[in-house]
Amino acid sequence: GEDVEQSLFLSVREGDSSVINCTYTDSSSTYLYWYKQEPGAGLQLLTYIFSNMDMKQDQRLTVLLNKKDKHLSLRIADTQTGDSAIYFCAEGPLRSGYALNFGKGTSLLVTP
Amino acid sequence: EADIYQTPRYLVIGTGKKITLECSQTMGHDKMYWYQQDPGMELHLIHYSYGVNSTEKGDLSSESTVSRIRTEHFPLTLESARPSHTSQYLCASSSTGLNEKLFFGSGTQLSVL
Predict the structure, then answer these.
(1) What's residue B2's pLDDT?
(2) Contact check, Cβ <8 Å, A30/B50
(3) Nearest-CA neighbor of A25 among A86, A98, A103, A104?
(4) B45, A99: Cβ pair inside 8 Å?
């Protein structure tokens, strides 16, 4: 399928804000998702945004959507060492009608 | 508590063995999926199912097979494991509808020697 692009690696200091960026390709996608994967675990849904919204805030998480540029970002405020994980952006449902299209994941490292 | 379970958590086997990775969910979801995750983190959809007796191949060609005889159960089988099958296998499920919120199991880390 078409690619969802993410940068592969991000390193931030504890207490700073983290911003993870993603570009998607399917303009018919209704929802866009952020998943978190901790070492040795499955993926956990962090948050999602409906495509007719441009912002969603959930505690320390802020999702921004620029539908014109097909750009999605996840901002984590006051980043903690426990936020170190891999973050996947995903779009769906797809024109093909099934599943989600995942990015390759961004590995976030939070240093003390 | 509604959840999705995968067993075993880790599996180390020799080449040529037949294995079955188990996946069960108690959420009543119609849709279930198997993803293969390589060490570079990327997820590849290898199988999916929209309900009982429905199975389809995903984007990545796989030598594994799946079955869906019961809504809650979606096992994946490798008839003859090879070292190239060494990977993390993730099972997921979702309810029917536009919002494809996937719920993932903890994964099975398979190592074929």
Answers:
(1) 63
(2) no
(3) A103
(4) yes
